[in-house]
Design brief:
Low-confidence stretches of chain A: none
Number of strands of chain B: 11
Distance between the termini of chain A: 33 Å
Oligomer: heterodimer
Distance between the termini of chain B: 41 Å
Radius of gyration of chain A: 13 Å
Structural class of chain A: mainly beta
Structural class of chain B: mainly beta
Shape of chain B: globular
Largest sheet of chain A: 7 strands, mixed
Shape of chain A: globular
Largest sheet of chain B: 6 strands, mixed
Order of helices and strands of chain B: EEEEEEEEEEE
Radius of gyration of chain B: 13 Å
Number of strands of chain A: 11
Number of helices of chain A: 0
Helix content of chain A: under 10%
Low-confidence stretches of chain B: none
Number of helices of chain B: 0
Largest interface: A-B, 27 and 26 residues
Mean pLDDT of chain A: 92
Chain lengths: 115, 111
């Protein structure tokens, strides 16, 4: 399978704990995006990378969220001191190089439940 | 900030009927993309529109991009049960790759 993969698929954590998610994009894609999706809503943009550079981060994202893509390949999203409001599906997507409009290919997501 | 609105939120149709969802952006877009998400699944790219007034077809699906590049529509002719899912439009700004998604239209098809 050469699609976008995400791990873990499900994460249950207690409020106040830190969690980290991993995304492996399609290998030749240089752009990587993180989104958050809650029930009945469309994906909400969090941040994106071009290679290893983080080019934009949503203003809605608190300082508890941080993302990295250290070698321009896989990426991690960390949430510190989780809150119940962080419960959501976290989606990763990647897009190919130099294509107008950058159509995005999504992974299966990591479902986070904060108790 | 930029907002993308979709209507209707839900649509129930009888198999064989047509379906249309509409998308409106608060700002001019460089492109608009459409995605489909099946229940329990992740968004899957359908198509991208770039040019003002552009119309593209994929079998029974017709996509339009408005002249002002602020609105778009997806029309499905003669729906089938396989069309069930949530259809999202997503507006893009040039050179950023960032997409702003609408809240989606969920289509239910009764056989």
């Amino acid at each position: 399978d050469t699609g976008v993969s995400q791990n873990p698929r499900h994460k249950i954590t207690k409020r106040g704990q830190n969690v980290t998610f991993r995304c492996d994009p399609i290998s030749e894609h240089n752009r990587l995006y993180w989104y958050r999706q809650t029930l009945g809503q469309g994906p909400e943009f969090l941040t994106y990378f071009q290679n290893e550079a983080q080019l934009e981060k949503s203003r809605l994202l608190s300082d508890r969220f941080s993302a990295e893509r250290p070698k321009g390949s896989f990426s991690t999203l960390e949430i510190q001191r989780t809150e119940q409001g962080d419960s959501a599906m976290y989606l990763c997507a990647s897009s190919p190089k130099l294509r107008l409009g950058y159509e995005q290919y999504f992974g299966p997501g990591t479902r986070l439940t904060v108790t | 900030g930029q907002q993308v609105m979709q209507i209707p939120q839900y649509q129930h149709v009888q198999e064989g009927e047509d379906f249309t969802t509409y998308c409106n952006s608060s700002t001019t877009l460089s492109n608009i993309q459409w995605y489909k998400q099946r229940p329990g699944g992740h968004p899957v790219f359908l198509i991208q529109l770039v040019k003002s007034g552009e119309v593209k077809k994929q079998k029974r699906l017709t996509f339009q991009f408005g002249e002002a590049k602020k609105n778009s529509s997806l029309h499905i002719t003669a729906t089938q049960t396989t069309d069930v899912g949530t259809y999202f439009c997503a507006g893009g700004k040039s050179n950023t790759g960032k997409l702003i998604f609408g809240q989606g239209t969920t289509l239910q098809v009764k056989p």
